[in-house]
Amino acid sequence: MIGGLFIYNHKGEVLISRVYRDDIGRNAVDAFRVNVIHARQQVRSPVTNIARTSFFHVKRSNIWLAAVTKQNVNAAMVFEFLYKMCDVMTAYFGKISEENIKNNFVLIYELLDEILDFGYPQNSETGALKTFITQTGIKSQSKEEQSQITSQVTGQIGWRREGIKYRRNELFLDVLESVNLLMSPQGQVLSAHVSGRVVMKSYLSGMPECKFGMNDKIVIDKQGKGGATDEAGKSGGGGGKQSIAIDDCTFHQCVRLSKFDAERSISFIPPDGECELMRYRTTKDIILPFRVIPLVREVGRTKLEVKVVIKSNFKPSLLAQKIEVRIPTPLNTSGVQVICMKGKAKYKASENAIVWKIKRMAGMKESQISAEIELLPTNDKKKWARPPISMNFEVPFAPSGLKVRYLKVFEPKLNYSDHDVIKWVRYIGRSGIYETRC
Amino acid sequence: MPAVSKGDGMRGLAVFISDIRNCKSKEAEIKRINKELANIRSKFKGDKALDGYSKKKYVCKLLFIFLLGHDIDFGHMEAVNLLSSNKYTEKQIGYLFISVLVNSNSELIRLINNAIKNDLSSRNPTFMCLALHCIANVGSREMAEAFAGEIPRILVAGDTMDSVKQSAALCLLRLYKASPDLVLMGEWTSRVVHLLNDQHMGVVTAAISLITCLSSKNPDEFKTCVSLAVSRLSRIVSSASTDLQDYTYYFVPAPWLSCKLLRLLQCYPPPEDGAVKGRLVECLETILNKAQEPPKSKKVQHSNAKNAILFEAISLIIHYDSEPNLLVRACNQLGQFLQHRETNLRYLALESMCTLASSEFSHEAVKTHIETVINALKTERDVSVRQRAADLLYAMCDRSNAKQIVAEMLSYLETADYSIREEMVLKVAILAEKYAVDYSWYVDTILNLIRIAGDYVSEEVWYRVIQIVINRDDVQGYAAKTVFEALQAPACHENMVKVGGYILGEFGNLIAGDPRSSPLVQFNLLHSKFHLCSVPTRALLLSAYIKFINLFPETKATIQEVLRSDSQIRNSDVELQQRAVEYLKLSSIASTDVLATVLEEMPPFPERESSILAKLKKKKGPGAVSVELEDGKERGELNGGADRGGEAAIAASNASTPSPSSDLLGLRSAAPVGGPAPSAGSLLVDVFSEAGPAASSTRVNDDGFLSSAPPSAASEDPAPPLPESDELLNKFVCKNNGVLFENQLLQIGIKSEYRQNLGRMYLFYGNKTSVQFVSFTTTVSCPGELQSQLNVQTKPVEPLVEGGAQVQQVINIECLTDFVDAPLLNIKFRYGGALQNITLKLPVTINKFFQPTEMAAADFFQRWKQLSQPQQEAQKIFKASHGMDTEVLKAKLLGLGTALLENVDPNPENYVCAGVIQTKIQQVGCLLRLEPNAQAQPGEQMYRLTLRSSKDTVSQRVCDLLAEQF
C-alpha cells in the first residue's frame, strides 16, 4: 500500500509531505528529488525504483506528485489514485499550481487524511467529500447533519446523499474520445486506437435509478438487428455503422457490475453533479478524421523541401476545430520559408518544428502547406531521424462510432418520469497522439 | 572569458545567460536554447560575413550551451576562423572553444594545427602562450605528433621570452605524460637540464617539473641535473629572503622551487662527488637549523611554507638513509612536531617517523618517542592521526618494547574506531608472533585479542594460533589450559569457540588429568557453546567431538548420543548432517586402532610465510609491511605455520563433488587383499579409503582438521630424487595407502598390498590441471645392489593424460632378499610444452614383507633370548616427537606389519611385537620391543626401541625405519 505522498514544485522543493507508514523515512523525499526531478537524464518512466522503494509520479504542469511505497503494490491502482487526487484538488481549488497548493495546503492535508487511510485509498468522490470537507471555514453542523453524513459515507451508496431536490431535472452526457494513430508515409495504419470516456453531469432529484444504453456490439447482436437502426448514424461522421466492438471498459463505482456481467446493461444511481460514468477503448473500425500526406525531398545537403497535405474525412456538414499540424525540422535548420493555403504557419525555433494552425475545417476538404528548409552543413555524421508529423484537432463526433442509444431515468418515490428529464448528449473527438511518419 | 565590460561587452551573451538562469523549468531552458541555436545557425548561414565581434559572441554562446550539457554540432569552423584573428580576445575565445570542444575531425584538426603553428612561429609572446596552452589542454596524440618536435626548440631557444618558456616547459610535460613515446628529448637533454641555471625563477620552477618527470623515467640521461639542483638549492637556502623579491613567500625564499628541487633529488641516490654531497648536506642542515629559528611571521602561510620545505628535506634524508647525524636530527625535529598544536603537523610527523623507524640509524631515536606516540594513540581526536600513531607503534616495535607496545595496542583496541580495528588486530597478532619470547605470552595475547575484538579477528589470525600451537609442543598444554579457562566465560566469541574446539580436540588430553577439566567437563563446556554458533563452527565442533572419542574413550557414549540426536543427524545443513552421520558410524564401526589412525594428531604445518602477514599486505598494499620482510632470520626461529589450506586442498583437489562412495564402505574393507582393481570412477575415493570420510567432509569447510594425509610436498626439481622423498618414504612405513606426492600439476596416490614376499602397488597419477599431459612416461629403477634384492615389474602407462583425468599403473614387487634402499620412481611428461621431470622414492620398505606372528609370552622370551648375539640386536633411544597416545602407537605398530602381542611384557606400558619377514631366499624372524616413559613431562618423553632378528642388517634397517615413526 502507499507509504507516503509528496508534492514537489519544479525546483524539487517539497510542498506537501504526508507519510502514512513507518517504512518510509525522511530520506525518501530526497531520494526522489535527486534521482528523478534533478536527474541528469530526463526520467521518462513514471515508476522509479530507488533502494527497494518505489516512486510513482505524475506531473501536472510544473508540479510533481509522487506516491512512495516499499511494498509490491498494484501500480495501476496507485496511478488511478493519483489521477483521482488531481481531480479532487482541481475540483476544490482549480488549476494545480504551486501557488494554489501553497494557498490551500491545510485543505490538501485535510483531503489526504480523508482519501488515504494507512495507505489504503478511501472515498475520493468529490461530491461526497465536499459535504464534509469545505473551504468555507468552520461550519458547526447539527447533530442530524453529522449523523447523516456518517451514515451516507459509511452506507451502501456512499456517493449520493438523500433528499436532493431540483426544480428542473437535467442530465448532460458527454462522450469524450481521443483518437491515437501512427501511420506510415504511404498511408498504411500501423497502429490506431480510441480511448473514450463517458462523462455525466446530473441534476436529478431523489435517488434516481438510471439505465444507460449504447450501440455495444454484444448488446445489439443479442437483441437482433431490428431495433436500433433509426438511432444509429444520426449524428455520426463516417458510415452507417451500427454497433461497435468495445475492447475493454471500466465503470464508475456507482454502476452495478453484477447486472452488467449478467445482462450487460449499465444501471446505476448517479452521484450528484459530475462523474465519469465509464471509460473504454476500441481498436476496430475507427473513423480517422484526418489523413496526412507528407512529401519530403532533400535538395542537396543544405536544403529540404517539405509538402504536407491534410484531408478531412468526415461528413461535410461537420466542422473540425483547433487543427494544428506540427512538422518537425532538422536540428541544423538555419532558415525556413513557408507557404500555406489556409490557416497560419510559423517556424518555431524553440520547438524545432513548423506549426501550422487552422481554426476550422469542414469535412471532405483538403489543404496544403509547403516549406523550404535551409540547413547548415554540420560535422555530425548522424542522419536526421525524421520524427513523425503530429496533429491536433477536435471533431464533433465519436471516432470510435459509439452512439448513445438511451439513458433512462426512474425515480419510483418522487413523481417525475423519464420524459420529464431534460437530457443533453454531446460527442467530442480529440486527437491523442496522431502521427504520420514522413 | 573576458568580463562583461562596456567596451567589449558581448551584451547578447549576458542577456542569453541571464535568460537561461531565469528559466523556471528544464523545458523552458531547452526551448530557450533551441531558439538561440536556431538564431546562431541562421546567423552563421547568412550570406553576409560576420565581423569578428559577433563571431566571438556566438561562439561564446555555443560554448556556454555546450557547458550546460547540450550537444553542439556546428560552429567549429567559425571558432577556427577566430584563431586567425589578430585580436587577443577573439583568438582567446577561439582557443577556448577548440580546447573544450575539439574532436578528432580530420579536416578541422589540420586547420587548427595550422593556426597553432602560425601562432607558435609568430613573435608575439601572448599568441605563443595561447597556442601552447591549447596544445597542453587538448593534449591529444595528434597534437603530440604535430608539435612534439617544435616545443623543445621553443623551450631552449635563446630568444624566447621567459613566460613562453614557462608555458613551453609545462606544455611539454603534459605531452610527455600523455604520450611519452612521441616526446623524444635526445639532443635537447643537456640544454633542458641547464634551464635549472636560468635567471628567471619561474622558468626554473616550470622546468624542474618537466625534469623531475623525465628523469624518473630515464634517470641516467638526466644525471647531470643533480649537481645543478644542489647548487640551485644551496643558493636559495643561503640567500637572504629579500634577494629573491617576487619569489619570497611570507619570508620564505622560493618555497615551491625548494620543494621541487628536493623532490627531484629524491629521484637519485646520494651524489658521489664529495663536494656536491657536502654542499647538499650543508643545505639540509641549514633547513633543519631554520626550523629551529623563531618564526619571522605569525601568519600560517609562513609556517606552512617553512614546514613544507622541512618535510621535503626530511623525506630526502630518509631517502638517502646514509647520514646518521641528519637522520637523528630529523627524528628529533619530528619529535617536536609530535606535540605541535597543529593536527596536520602531528599527522605528517607520525607518517614520516614511520619511514624513519625502518632505518637502522634512526630506529633507536624513534624509539625514544614511544610514550608520546602511545599518548597520541590514546588522546588524539582525529582518527586518521590515531591510525598513523598505530602504524608508527607497529613500525617501532622490536624485541625490547614488544610487550609494552602490544599491551598498549590491546588496551587501545577496546576503544578503537571500528574502521581501524581489523587492521589493529592483525598488527597485534603479527607483533605478538614476531617478538614472542615465550609462547605462553603469545597464546595469552591472542586469546585476549579474540576476547576484546572477536569480531575483527579474521580467519587468518586464529588459523595462525593453531598452526603455532600445533607446531610448538611446549605450548600445547598451556594453550589447552588457557583456552579451557577462556571458554568458561559465560559469553565468549565464536572465534574463541573455534580455537577452543580445535585445540581441545587436539590437545585436550594434556589437561584431562585435572579433575576440573576432565574429558566430560571439557566436552560439556564445548557443547554448551554449540547451539550459539554458526554452521562452520558447528562443523568444526563436530570434528572436535570425534577427536574426543579418540582421545577419551570414556566420552564415547555421551558423544555418540549427541551425534545421534535428531538435531545433528537430521540437520538441515548437509555438511553438519554428513559429519554427524559419518562420525557416528566411524565411532561405532571402526576399531580403536583404525580410529587412532584416522584421528591421528595433526602433523606439524610446513613453514611458510605467515598468512596474517600476507593478509596485512593485501590490506595495505605492498611496501607497508616491508619492515617485517627484512628480518626473516627472526621469523625462522619461530615455528611458522603454513597456509592451512594445504592439507584440505589435497582432498579438495581430488574429488570435486562429494562422492557418495566416500562413505564408510571404503573403511569397512579397509585392507582388501588382492581384490579386483577398482574401477576408474571410485579410484579417487578408494585411494583414500582410510582418510576418505574425514577428508571429504573436512574439505567443505577447509578446516583441514582430520585429514591425516601427509602435507603436500611441492617441488619441481627435476632428475635427482626430491629432497622430501625420504620423508615421504617414512610416511608410508606404517601405512599402505595415501597420497605419495602432490604439486600444482600432478598428484600421485598409492594403494598397495603385500602378501608373503610379493607385493602389488597401484599408482594413481592424477592430472590436476585442465590441460593434458603429453608423452607421460614412468620408470621404476632399482639403483645399485637393490637390483639383486628386489624384483620390480611395471606395466607401461598411457602416454596421454587428459586434464582432470587419472591413470593407473600397477607395479609388481618381489622381495628376493632383505634390502635397505627404496626403488626410484621417475615421472616425465610435458605440460604446456615444458618438460616435467620428477623422481621419487617408491615407498617399498623391508617391513612391508612382514608376516605377523602370534605367540605367547613364554614363547616370545624364549626366542628373544635365542637372538642374544650383539649384532642381532639393534637398539635406539629417541625423543618422542608426536606425543604418546596409546591408540596411535598401537595403530602404528600394527601398520608396521607385525603382530602386536598383548600381555607379554611384564610392564603393561611397553609394547611387544613379532613378525617374520618373507623374502624369496630366506625368512627372517623379527622381535620388537618398544618402551616409552610416558610419565615424563611432555617434551621430554623418550622411547627405547629394541629389535632382534636373525639377520643383523634387518634389525638395523627396521630399527631405523621405526625410529622415525614415533
Word description of this protein:
The complex is a heterodimer of chains A (438) and B (966). By secondary structure, chain A is of the alpha+beta class. Chain A folds into 3 domains: 4-130, Beta-Lactamase (2-Layer Sandwich), CATH 3.30.450.60; 170-222 and 242-286 and 398-436, Sandwich (Immunoglobulin-like), CATH 2.60.40; 290-395, Sandwich (Immunoglobulin-like), CATH 2.60.40. In chain A, strands 11-13-9-8-23-21-16-19-18 form a 9-stranded mixed sheet, with no helix packed on it. Chain A has a 5-stranded antiparallel sheet with strand order 2-1-5-4-3, sandwiched between helices. The longest helix of chain A is centred in the N-terminal third of the chain and has 19 residues, at 75-93. Chain A has helices spanning 27-37, 75-93, 98-103, 105-115, 126-132, 143-154, 217-223, 257-263; strands at 4-8, 14-19, 47-50, 53-60, 63-69, 116-117, 120-121, 170-183, 189-203, 209-214, 248-251, 266-268, 273-282, 290-299, 303-312, 319-328, 333-340, 344-348, 353-362, 366-375, 389-395, 404-410, 422-436. Chain B has 966 residues and is an alpha+beta fold. Chain B is 54% helix and 11% strand. Chain B has 45 helices and 16 strands. In chain B, strands 11, 12, 13, 14, 15 and 16 form a 6-stranded antiparallel sheet that branches. In chain B, strands 3-4-5-8-7 form a 5-stranded antiparallel sheet. A 3-stranded antiparallel sheet of chain B has the order 6-9-10. The longest helix of chain B has 21 residues, at 300-320. Chain B starts with 10 loop residues before the first helix and ends with a helix. Mean pLDDT of chain B is 79; it is low at 1-6 and 622-718. The interface between A and B is medium-sized, with 20 and 21 residues. Chain A: A 1,2-diacyl-sn-glycero-3-phospho-(1D-myo-inositol-3,4,5-trisphosphate) binds at residues 344, 346, 348, 357, 359. Chain A: One of its GO terms (cellular component) is plasma membrane. Chain A: Belongs to the adaptor complexes medium subunit family. Chain A: It is found in: Cell membrane; Membrane, Coated pit. Chain A: It is a peripheral membrane protein.
